[in-house]
Amino acid sequence: xxxxxxxxxxxxxxxxxxxxxxxxxxxxxxxxxxxxxxxxxxxxxxxxxxxxxxxxxxxxxxxxxxxxxxxxxxxxxxxxxxxxxxxxxxxxxxxxxxxxxxxxxxxxxxxxxxxxxxxxxxxxxxxxxxxxxxxxxxxxxxxxxxxxxxxxxxxxxx
Length: 158
Prior knowledge:
The protein is mainly beta. 0% of the residues lie in helices and 34% in strands. Strands 1, 2, 3, 4, 5, 6, 7, 8 and 9 form a 9-stranded antiparallel β-sheet that branches.
């Protein structure tokens, strides 16, 4: 093994539940295009779908489908596939990617609902407000500072 961590181990992998015993997970059919695992969506009559500009509430986070591999997902695919069942975390702790701002312990969590970019997907987590493009989640917080890649653990609905 030739790996060494000089300062800090990585925080985790976005979309991975970090404290499984403290989490509630439901299975829902995902519809629409989610930019990554570990982002928020909402539940509708159609299934679990991406957020939209007028949304002010979220339902849960898309859980990454590893260590098992979905038959419809290519090896190493990093985006949830539409039309299949995915695990959705309703409450608990998850490693997510902080796409903007500096995540700090007990910091506010914002979710992007409009004006998506490749680096800031709809449903993505941010540590800084961006006007009407983000909403603040009052029932979520950062559990520690983000690592060098922006990965950080959040608590949600705890």
